[in-house]
Structure formats: structure tokens, C-alpha cells
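Support request, please re-run this one:
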Amino acid sequence: MDNRPIGFFDSGLGGLTCIPNLFRQLPEERIIYFGDTARTPYGSKAVSTIRHYAAQIADFLAAQNVKMMVIACNTITATCLDELRARYPSIPIIGIISPAAKTVARTCDETNRIGVIATKATIASDDYPRKILEKNPALHVFSKATPAFVPLIEEGIIDNQIMDLTIHYYLDDFLAENQIDTLVLGCTHYPIIRSNIKRLYPALKIINPSYEIMRPINDSLREHDMYAAANDRENIFYASDLSENFVNMIQKVLEVEESDLILKFKNLDL
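Re-run finished. Output below.
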């Protein structure tokens, strides 16, 4: 047993979409979350910059004595996973792309047309198609960078015409031209607009990596005998910019009141 917290981190608030499943499946576990809201989005930045930011966050979480790190960010997973594992070989570090790729490979066949939407950096890495096709070479996989989604979500522009128009702009031709029937939400921000996408394209099957990541978390906790027992620790949410929208999104995603949260500001450049 190990009552130390699990560290989750993301370029902003998108990684929050991984947390409800953890709380439902493993209610004794506690977390420390870090969202780099002051420097989001990562997806259009140079890989060297993303790696510098990710190392700063990992160093901070390691200093908090976390028992595991979960990269709740597709961009960081695609560009930094190997480097972070080499930096902290004694801490299990879970990336978000492989679990989703395994689900796609297991649940789809050659009749399916699979689309992956993500940030520019994730698409440029080719990590999703490579991992999916390694496990099932018969599949047809198409990718599309959708960089405007993250800043809109970070600003809370979600349930309105602006978001719907942006979804149409990115997806109408992409889905039609490639005859896509299965869509992978290759950014942890995107589950926040899953209902928008489903409303606009009701026949589309959607795969959510924020849900699929629970399998390797469970596997790693079991392998290292690190499940928590009854736990009186608090969950702590850090951000490099405690914006009103970050606080609102925690409340919305986790269905809690602000008074029930421990929110802390942390500038990693100081």
C-alpha cells in the first residue's frame, strides 16, 4: 500500500478530464494536479520548448513526492514521454496515447475509417497512427491538426455558436473526404467538447483517451503494490495561472464546489 498522491499534469485544464474516472474507480487515491495555464497551449510550440516546460513540471511533482506521474496531455506524451522516463526512472510515468491506440486497434477492423484530431505537435509526431498500426496494420487512420480548439476551451468558449462553427470548419471536409466513422479525441481538452461533436455528427463513434488511461494506471498501481488504503490526504490542484475559467472548469468537470477544492498558484519560472 502507498498513500502518496498520484501526479497528473497537462499544458492547461484539459487533463482534468482524466480525473473523474480515477475518483470513480479508485476513490481512495489522492492526486496533485498541475495545469500550466499561463503557458498554454503547448501544441503549436517548438518541441524543445515543450520538453523544457514538461521537465519543469515533472521536477515540481517529483519534489512533492508523488508515487506516479500521469501525463494527462497528448502533446507532452507525444514529444516528451521517453525523456521524462529517463529523467525519473524510479517513478512510473504513464502516457496517454498508447492506451487509446490499443483500444482503437482492439475495437476497430479494416471496415472502419479512423480519424485522429489533436494539436499540431501531436499530429506532427505521428504517434497515434504509428501506435495504432503497430497493433493492427489492417486499419485505415487519418489525422487532422485542430489547433484552435484548445485556446477556445481554455477561454470557456464551449457551448455556443463560435465553437460549433470551429468544429464544422475543421471536421466537415475531414470526415466526409475520408469517410471517417470513428474519431479519436487526441487531446485531453477535447472531451470537454465531445457533446458538441456528437450533436453535430451523431453517427460518429468517439474514442476518449482520457477514459482509456485508467487501464495502465490500474496496471501500474497493481504491479508496484501502490494502491492507497483509507486516505485522509487532500487533492491539490496547482496552476501557473489561477484563472477564473480554470477554477470554473474544475468545478464543472469534477462536479464540486470551489469551497471544497484546494487550489494553489505555482510559477515554475521562479
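Residues 28 and 253 are 19 Å apart (CA to CA). Residues 97-209 form a domain with the Rossmann fold fold (CATH 3.40.50.1860).
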